Amino acid sequence: SQKIEQNSEALNIQEGKTATLTCNYTNYSPAYLQWYRQDPGRGPVFLLLIRENEKEKRKERLKVTFDTTLKQSLFHITASQPADSATYLCASAFGSNDYKLSFGAGTTVTVRA
Amino acid sequence: DVKVTQSSRYLVKRTGEKVFLECVQDMDHENMFWYRQDPGLGLRLIYFSYDVKMKEKGDIPEGYSVSREKKERFSLILESASTNQTSMYLCASLAGNTIYFGEGSWLTVV
């Protein structure tokens, strides 16, 4: 069955550096991948969606890539700030039910001032 | 802004109790979802509904049921709560390809 896998290890970085998170999927490529941010005790919030035919997508200091050869999406936070500290989730839909999202376990990012 | 509201933020229930978790969305979305989130396991889909009175099982439906009598409201029911159902429950609704989540309901079953 299809799986979304994220490196569940926490990522600790210094303010101003770039954080890079990895999302891998198994088997066939989904039509798109999504990234969400989740703060402690809160529901996830949508950040970005990247489609299969898009190599890269940007939103302010966020950048997402989609590599169908590697079966991987990378999520970058550039010029990181302590306010970026959160858990970031990767998600996608597989098969004919394109609204039935599967989520990775998330990667927790801590940005040190 | 889309708003998904979960009625209870924190609940403590006893084993064997019937538990209702309520969720309301204000954007007339057809698709609504219930997930549970556990450390290390991520979000897992329990049930979803694609229209009033229509429902479909997700990945972990055992021990749960749902009700969608009105478009804006989607309820999750634990018929007989068990300690392994202690978790954070997240309701969500779908607009296009984007899922909008509620703030979550923390359920502890003792």
Mind sketching the topology for me?
The complex is a heterodimer of chains A (113) and B (110).
Chain A: E1 4-6, E2 11-14, E3 19-25, E4 32-38, E5 45-51, E6 56-59, E7 62-67, E8 72-77, E9 86-93, E10 101-103, E11 107-112
Parallel strand pairs in A: 2-11
Antiparallel strand pairs in A: 1-3, 3-8, 4-5, 4-9, 6-7, 7-8, 9-10, 9-11
Chain B: E1 4-6, E2 10-13, E3 19-21, E4 23-25, E5 32-38, E6 42-51, E7 54-57, E8 65-70, E9 73-78, E10 87-95, E11 98-101, E12 105-109
Describe it.
The complex is a heterodimer of chains A (113) and B (110). Chain A has 113 residues and is mostly beta strands. Chain A is 0% helix and 54% strand. Chain A is built from no helices and 11 strands. In chain A, a hairpin with a 2-residue loop joins strand 6 (56-59) and strand 7. The termini of chain A are far apart. The mean pLDDT of chain A is 90. With 110 residues, chain B is mainly β. Chain B is 0% helix and 58% strand. Chain B contains no helices and 12 strands. Chain B has strands at 4-6, 10-13, 19-21, 23-25, 32-38, 42-51, 54-57, 65-70, 73-78, 87-95, 98-101, 105-109. In chain B, strands 2, 5, 6, 7, 10, 11 and 12 form a 7-stranded mixed β-sheet that branches. Chain B has a 3-stranded antiparallel β-sheet with strand order 3-9-8, with no helix packed on it. A two-stranded antiparallel ribbon of chain B has the order 1-4. Chain B is globular. Chain B starts with a strand and ends with a strand. The A-B interface holds A 8, 32, 34, 41-46, 49, 89, 91, 93, 98-106 and B 4, 31, 35, 40-45, 48, 50, 58, 90, 92, 94, 97-104, 106.
